[in-house]
Structure formats: structure tokens, C-alpha cells
Amino acid sequence: MDNWIVLVGVNHKTAPVEVREKLGTSGNSEEILSQLAQLSPLREVLFLSTCNRVEILFTTKQSAETGVKAVKQFLADFNQIPISQFENALYVYQQTEAVAHVFRVSSSLDSMVIGEPQILGQIKDAYRLALKHRLAGPILNRLLHKAFSVAKRIRTETKLAHHAVSISYAAVEMAKRIFSHLEGKKIMLIGAGEMAELAAQHLLNNGVKSIVVANRTLERAIELAERFQGKAISMEEIKEGLKEVDIIISSTGAPNFILLEKDVRQSMRARRHRPIFFIDIAVPRDIDPQINQIDNAYVYDIDDLQGVVEANKIKRQKEAQKAERIIEEETIKFKLWLETLSVVPTIIALKHKLEEIKHAELNKTFNQLKHLSEKDKEAIAVMTEAMIKKILHDPIQFLKQKENRERIDLYLDITRRLFNLDNHEEQERGYHKKTEFKE
């Protein structure tokens, strides 16, 4: 095997956060990568560090085991921890398994939340860093660009990212069902729960115009309002505020409902019955479910949203199966390309030798036939070039044929022996060394 592709890593499935954080942080990525480049078995290298995974992707011309051993020792030395603290959490993939893993990670099939888009950007950042350090050669360049195109293909051909699998995203999805669009809508955030804040942020990211924050502690309301560039109000002003807002996200610790059916019914007259959407993430609930009986008023509590999430998880799993088939197909294609690499050095050596023979014989012929014009010489050179291409065509095509791959090592050996390529390359290296010594 001329080139091994190897991936060594840990992720949220194999290691707890206290192990992952010891093995590398994004802040150290450049330093880690520069030191990985010094490991003799490694040729091309990419280092990926996120909150959920630490992975080292590399190629080596030595055995995969040698490369893995060097990486393990590096991780131990760099992070000043014994190998025993993380070895059991490591996974190692080689060749097509490594390729498929890179495709799966790039496509967010290996993420904690399947379909989340952040990982692709993180891989692109890691790739840019590898390019900066000149550690991405022909194999990793091809692999990473293919990974990006696979991720794009999966986004295009499946609906992997179309179904919300978090409470906050589910709230946005439900809001989109009620309102044809979210642009220009206004939010009221009641309370300061984390999920409510996330939902508010997602809604703002989806075009919602402004936010009003109500909290039992006005200082906290002001703090949140400033974060969202909104307006703070007291709890007593909520009912009046219902006349203006379109979406209410509530997450307080109140023991009883803070909004009753009669409160909303009164505000609907002032609203001229424009739709109003309540997202109740509080337990116990903040919003009276009887509000659902009012025309154009919609109440969803935590169970409703969780139901959306669970249904969407099932949908995503079905889409993930489609994505896996795409990855399997693209992995096979990459494997076929990888297999052609083994014939490249022999083909190059064969072309190089025949080119040298051509030039030597042309020079000899032209020295003997002094009467030839430049036009005649050019015609002869073109003819010999065409002859060489035709001579090379069949053996090159033979070496590249798929059906010959199982015995390619034998065919390459025969080709190199027939054309004496190894001795020729040795002579070439010897000549260049002598030339360098003389200089």
C-alpha cells in the first residue's frame, strides 16, 4: 500500500467531555497541527477539534499502525496525560472506513444533533488551517473537497436538516406553520428560561422584527432586552402588550397561569383578531390552554413541542438512511480513485523513460542529418511524439482497467521489469546526486 488514509479520534459517543477537552481545543489547533507535521510517519494532516470531537486525519506511506502509534504518543506528550487515560475512547478508521467517516461527519450524520450545519464550517476551518501549513496534499485535498460536495449533495437530495430536533427550533417551526412568514413579527419573551431565550434567538434569526421582554425582576428584563436589542416591561404590562405582539414565549417559575383565556379574549378585540401564537415552555404551565378555544389564538406547551421534536427525529432518521446510501456510493467512487493512485508512479516513470529515449534519438538523428530544415525537424518530432503516445496508450489503459485491480501489484511489477524502470530511476537519482555534489 503506497498511501494509507487514517483517522484517529474521540467524540461524544466514545468519550466524556473531560476526556475530549484534554485532547485538544480549537484555540490550540494551529500549534497542535504544526507539531503533528513534525511526526515522521505523517505526510498530509488535518486536525479537527470541536466541543463534541477531536480527530486527526492523516496519510502515511508507512504502516497505518506506525502512524496511529505516533499520533497516540503525540496526544499523550502534548497534553501531558498518559495514553491509558484516553486510549480506550479512541476510534481508528483506515482507508475506505476513514473516507466514509469523513463524509458522515461533514454531512452531520455523526453529530450529536443529526443535520446540524455547524460541523461543516468547522471542518472547512480545519482544512484551511491544513492548507495554510501546507499539510493538505493530493489525497486530503481530494478527500475534503469530495466531503464538501457530499455534504451539499445530502442537503440537496434529502431533508435531513428540514425537521427541528430541539425545543427551540420546534418553536420556530410551529410559528412558521401559523404565520406564512416571520418577517416583521414581534415577540414577547416572558421569563428568562434558557429554552425560551434560544427560541427567541431563533425567531429573531428567522426575520422576526423586535422583542419585548417581561420578567418579575425588571433588571433581568432590561439585561435580556439589551441583549436582543428589544424593550423591557414589567409583568403588569404583559396584558397590554398582547395587543402589539404576535408571538409570546413564556418560561417563568410561576405556580399558576399568568395569562388566562379572558385576558387574551379582551386583547383580541384590540388586535382585530390578528393571529397570536403562544409558546409555553414553563412547567408548571404559564398559559391557560383554554386560550386555544379563541379564534386565531394558538397555544403550544412543552409536550406539544416535544411531540414535534420526536416526530421530526423519526423523519430525520429516515432521511439519514437516504444520506447513508449517498455516502456509501461516494465512498466507493473515492475508493476507485484511490486505487488508481498506485499505478500513477509507474505510468509517470514509463512516460518519462520513453520521453528521454525520444529526445536522445532525435538529437542523435538531427546531428547526423545536418541538412534537415527546422520545419523537417519539427515534423519528425511531432511524428515521434505521436508514436510514443500510441505505444503508451494500450499499456496505460490496461493498468487503469477496473478488472485488473485485484492483480495490479503483479502487473505493475511486470511493467517495471519489462521496461527496466527501477534501474532507470536509480540511475536518474544517481545522476542528480552527482550533479548536486559537483555544484
Automatic annotation (TrEMBL):
Any keyword Oxidoreductase?
A: yes
Tetrapyrrole biosynthesis glutamyl-tRNA reductase dimerisation domain residues are: 322-421
Q: Which residues bind NADP(+)?
A: 191-196
Family that this chain belongs to: Belongs to the glutamyl-tRNA reductase family.
Assembly, in brief, is: Homodimer.
Question: Which residues carry out catalysis?
Answer: 51 (nucleophile)
UniProt keywords, alphabetically: NADP, Oxidoreductase, Porphyrin biosynthesis
> What EC number is given for this enzyme?
1.2.1.70
Superkingdom of the organism of origin: Bacteria
User: What pathway is it annotated to?
Assistant: Porphyrin-containing compound metabolism; protoporphyrin-IX biosynthesis; 5-aminolevulinate from L-glutamyl-tRNA(Glu): step 1/2
Spell out the reaction equation it catalyses. Answer: (S)-4-amino-5-oxopentanoate + tRNA(Glu) + NADP(+) = L-glutamyl-tRNA(Glu) + NADPH + H(+)
Residue positions binding substrate: 50-53, 111, 116-118, 122
Spell out the PROSITE patterns in the cross-references: GLUTR (PS00747)
Record bears the keyword NADP: yes
State the name under which the record lists this protein.
Glutamyl-tRNA reductase
Q: What else is known?
A: During catalysis, the active site Cys acts as a nucleophile attacking the alpha-carbonyl group of tRNA-bound glutamate with the formation of a thioester intermediate between enzyme and glutamate, and the concomitant release of tRNA(Glu). The thioester intermediate is finally reduced by direct hydride transfer from NADPH, to form the product GSA.
In this chain the Glutamyl-tRNA reductase N-terminal domain maps to: 8-158
Q: Where is this site: Important for activity?
A: 101
Q: Which residue numbers delimit the Quinate/shikimate 5-dehydrogenase/glutamyl-tRNA reductase domain?
A: 173-308
For this protein, the record's Gene3D superfamilies field holds: Glutamyl-tRNA reductase, N-terminal domain (3.30.460.30), NAD(P)-binding Rossmann-like Domain (3.40.50.720)
Extract one GO BP annotation from the record.
Answer: protoporphyrinogen IX biosynthetic process from glutamate
Gene name tied to this protein: hemA
Q: What does this protein do?
A: Catalyzes the NADPH-dependent reduction of glutamyl-tRNA(Glu) to glutamate 1-semialdehyde (GSA).
